[in-house]
Amino acid sequence: MDKFVVSGGATLDGEVPISGAKNAALPILAASLLSPEPLQLANLPDLRDVHTMLHLLRILGARVNGSAPGRTSVSLEDPESFSAPYELVRTMRASLLVLGPLLGRFGRADVSLPGGCAIGARPVDIHVNALRTMGAEVEIRGGYISARCCGLKGARIDLPLPTVTGTENILMAAVLAEGETVIENAAREPEVRDLADCLNAMGAKVSGAGGSRISVRGVKELHGASRAILPDRIEAGTYLVAGAMTGGRVVARFNGELALGEVVGALRNTGAKVRRGEGFVELDMRGRRPHSVNLVTAPWPGFPTDMQAQFTALNAIASEHALVRESVFEQRFMHVAELKRMGADIEPLGREVLIRGVRKLQAAPVMATDLRASASLVLAALVAEGETVIHRVYHVDRGYERIEEKLNDLGADIRRV
């Protein structure tokens, strides 16, 4: 099992290319199931989760062709299976996204109950109840969600919370349903809007995505399209935090729209200079120690939960103290114990942590517990005295393309062994 060996103390300086976003790529790949014609994708990131989704699509009978790095064509004419097996779904919760498209187009789907990162309860009842409201018969048996219908019907879906995966699944189920579907309290993340744009390019009639009320008028069929995957706002934010922590300068380069939202304000609150322009974001913290930043995670447009661990690591070496509250997932502070092994002064307070910044962290053997926690440990190792060994880095490979290569190009010293 791979691990990282990180020699701390380097000051990062340079430019880093931002890959396509995992959280945009996965639902768009699932959307390829909605049409027999090819969905051609550019800027597809080379990630473990993307490979898992492509493997799942092949199991279902999809044809997957890659013509160049980052370019892939996916089409499904005649399915070979309607089942997403436990062996795949247990490793990646986003596998659940095939439920809506399979049911909407073919009237049947059997999807294993999901796994993925152990960051707290993410119940499937929102997906199940929505599909039942649209006329499907759904049972949970033998560890699988088993759904059947003779054509879905448009309906009003009032979500109890703005779940991203739930919104995306319902959206994909609704595009081929009879009549109009209205999703209230929908997730507003940029990746949801991007999925809607992709579906519209395939012939769907979706309006309101990016807001809390999405309307979908069902059509009889969809066709192929060409899309470029959004740049990854979480990857960009992670490298900018790395620049701030090491007292360096990092320029994130990207193609397309990069929606950083409240992350920019949080970075500026650390004392960094942040400059944005066409296709780049520059952070300059040269010669300064970051200030502590109080944070509360929330669904978009709030501060993203996927950046909480990285800012927790930053606060660990910042001046003064900070409170960080996690309001999205109840078990997303598992990186705290590992950071404390490196000398961080962090006091858990239920859904909050009180962080008293120290000037230096110390190298120690640590273990990644989930995707973003692994990123925070890499950041902490960059500023720790000595050589840190990070175990179970397969987590980081799920969401960061060649992270050690990109950081080494900025001046870090990371080896994969």
Task: Give an overview in words.
The protein folds into two domains: 3-19 and 231-416, UDP-n-acetylglucosamine1-carboxyvinyl-transferase, Chain (Alpha-beta prism); 22-228, UDP-n-acetylglucosamine1-carboxyvinyl-transferase, Chain, CATH 3.65.10. It contains 14 helices and 26 strands. The strands form seven sheets. It has a four-stranded mixed β-sheet. A four-stranded mixed β-sheet has the order 2-15-17-16. Strands 4-5-3-14 form a four-stranded mixed β-sheet, with helices on one face. It has helices spanning 22-31, 48-60, 86-89, 99-106, 125-133, 164-174, 190-201, 233-245, 262-269, 308-316, 335-341, 371-383, 394-397, 403-409; strands at 3-7, 13-17, 39-42, 63-68, 71-75, 83-84, 108-112, 137-141, 144-148, 156-158, 180-184, 205-207, 213-217, 225-228, 249-253, 273-277, 280-284, 295-296, 321-325, 345-349, 352-356, 361-362, 365-367, 384-385, 387-391, 414-416. It has 417 residues and is α/β, with parallel strands linked by helices. Helix 8 (233-245) runs parallel beside helix 12 (371-383). Strand 10 (156-158), helix 6 and strand 11 form a beta-alpha-beta unit. Helix content is 31%, strand content 26%.
Summarize the structure in short:
With 417 residues, the protein is of the alpha/beta class.
What descriptive keywords fit this protein?
417 residues; alpha/beta; UDP-n-acetylglucosamine1-carboxyvinyl-transferase, Chain; four-stranded mixed β-sheet; 14 helices; 26 strands; elongated
